[in-house]
Write a structure and sequence with these properties.
Blueprint (H helix, E strand, L loop, with lengths): L1 H13 L4 E2 L2 E2 H25 L1 H36 L3 H7 L2 H21 L8 H33 L3
Antiparallel strand pairs: 1-2
Helix pairs in contact: 2-3, 2-5, 2-6, 3-5, 4-6, 5-6
Length: 163
């Protein structure tokens, strides 16, 4: 039984994010990040402005944000693996290191906002403190959009500048 567990651990160690179907994983997963994070951020702004949108669409926006956050973590990991093969793009790597933090903050904030908003009866106004929390969420969402675009653009420049 111990030998079976040990061989399973070796198989897991041999599994790498390095390639997917023979292609580098980083360029594949990055596309999920640059699509899902801005979409989730726009959705966050939408649910803070519209209670109807929060009630109807937050159940879709919350998973989008979490999938984007997980994708950003995978993209960071695969980026380091790709850098071992092709060299380290310093500016891109420096900027990209903080994107998963922003993404996780966004996903957690959207989730928290939605859970609290669900508890407020539909016939009542949102309390002022909650409106303030929505404004903070909006600012975070704008920051995520800007940062995702900047990181993606820096990666595109590194990729396509030598061609």
């Amino acid at each position: 039984m111990f030998a079976a567990r040990a061989s399973a651990l070796v198989a897991v160690d041999a599994l790498s994010w390095d390639t997917t179907f023979g292609l580098p994983t980083h360029p594949l997963i990055v596309h999920a990040v640059v699509v899902l994070l801005p979409l989730a951020a726009l959705g966050a702004i939408w649910i803070t402005v519209s209670r109807r949108a929060s009630r109807r669409f937050a159940a879709v926006i919350v998973p989008l944000a979490w999938i984007g956050a997980v994708a950003s973590l995978i993209a960071e990991d695969t980026g380091w693996l790709l850098a071992e093969q092709v060299g380290l793009p310093q500016e891109h790597a420096t900027m990209a290191d903080s994107l998963p933090v922003f993404a996780l903050l966004l996903a957690a904030s959207i989730t928290g906002f939605w859970l609290v908003d669900r508890g407020i009866p539909g016939n009542r106004r949102r309390p002022p403190w909650f409106v303030g929390a929505g404004i903070c969420l909006d600012l975070l969402a704008i920051a995520v959009i800007v940062w995702a675009i900047r990181v993606g653009h820096s990666g595109a420049i590194v990729t396509w500048s030598g061609r």
